[in-house]
Amino acid sequence: MEKQKNYIEPSQLKEHIGEEISIKGSIYKIRKMKGFAFVLIRTPQSIVQGIYTEETAKDSIETLKEESCCIIHAKVVAEERAKMGYELHLTNIQVLSEPKETSPIVINGKQVDTSIEKLLDFRPITLRNEKERAIFRIQNAMTDGMRRFFARHNFTEIHSPKLVSSGAEGGANIFRLDYFGKEAYLAQSPQFYKQMMVGVYERVFEIGPVFRAEKHDTSRHLNEYTGVDFEMGYIESFEDIMQTETELLKEAMQSVKENCPYEVSLLCVQIPEITNIPSIRFHKAKEWIAEAFCRPIRDYEDFEPEEEKLLCSLVKEKYGSDFIFVTHYPSKKRPFYAMDDPEHPEATLSFDLLFRGMEVTTGGQRIHKYEEQYKKIMERGMDPEAFQSYLMMHKYGMPPHGGLGIGLERLTCKLLDMDNVRYASLFPRDINRLVP
Fold first, then answer.
1. How far is the C-alpha of 27 from the C-alpha of 376, rounded, in Å?
2. Listed residue (401, 418, 402) closest to 360, CA to CA
3. 183 forms bridges with which residues in the sheet?
4. Is this structure's pTM higher than 0.85?
């Protein structure tokens, strides 16, 4: 591979104070003053402040346009008043390309001041805003931390198919498509495949897209989102899964602290301190909410979104925790592969994790014995022929196992105190949006 020219990485500029350097970047903002101009340069890591004066620069500032892609030659000068502790005294700007139109959205303010619809309509442009792109640096730091956790604990990363012959969850919330004359579906989750791979590697994980054909138009739902899934074998209890997630989230949050201090400060992020996450049984949680808020229980099989918020407020007050595990959900509301509680068969050995008022995880122990899984499929009125390859793994032996799926956008949304999960998706897909 041919060696590139000697450009300085923006993250290393502070090490070159007093030197003449060259960097690559886009002109983020030009603020003309009397006798000089501030030229803000957007680099992959940060916004760098440049100072233009006619005495030092070879080019006229009048020809320079915002959003031009450039090679910038400058001297690095210490400046305590600048955000980065230095600024660039520009000597020459080589323009590689420049915009042909003025952006219909102002993207170089403190935030993009427009509706969520326009923010998403012009997503390739609005993501250039400093705060918008900070969201996904933080999201990236979380997944980096998770991957490090998985590697250290002997999980193998897998990539399961997204075109499948049957749905893991069943029901109507599944995208159907023609597959060379056969009916196929977009995967609702990697559920079947990650269970199969437990029989191969014992511990597996996947970070990838999940598709749900739910006709929701709410601030908490997407039709394509990123699932962080893991599955592990030879567990003693579904609580092993909960403990593993606790440690996983600790590492994810620590990764944000260590790798995104500027973004955390810019977005005023309150990173939760995670020690042990408390847990409560589903029916106890319902009763607690009803009693604390004089609110009658309307749904005995699931939580309403408002109940999730109310429960989290109670947990925060009593335990000081931003998280709460809700366990033993009713069997009627859990998939056919969820293991029922032997002592209370109407409940499952499963859980949800709520974070600051929203469910971000569903998980639990799976049925690992063939006879039990076959029986539950039949009891649900499902056709076992449709699940032959799934049942195959049970037929030829599986260890006790379980796992979970985390909604990455929801986790990001609540971490950053956003009121709509679409802000935490690069290019969200909902019932109304298929572009850009």
1. 61
2. 418
3. 178
4. yes
